[in-house]
Amino acid sequence: MSIIAWIVLGLIAGALAKAIYPGHQGGGILSTIVLGIVGAVIGGSLATLLNTGTLAITSASLTIPGVILAIIGAIIAIFIWEKLARSRRI
Questions:
Q1: What is the pTM for the complete model shown?
Q2: Apex CA 83: angle with CA 39 and CA 50, to 5°?
């Protein structure tokens, strides 16, 4: 996948994940893109694990199912980030 496709996928998935996840997530457009790209890797890896039974680092593509996987992965990334940030504050 080209770098432009990664950026577009990251922006779409990150923005939708921030809109779906309850609460306020800070950050600007760059953090939203990074969140979406991380979500694409998490979602693609989970899909590979469920389909083949092996864990491989893969990413979702710029298709409708790929964007849905990236959104799910980005929501998981937000959840993990909030849990780690909360444990550091205490």
A1: 0.82
A2: 40
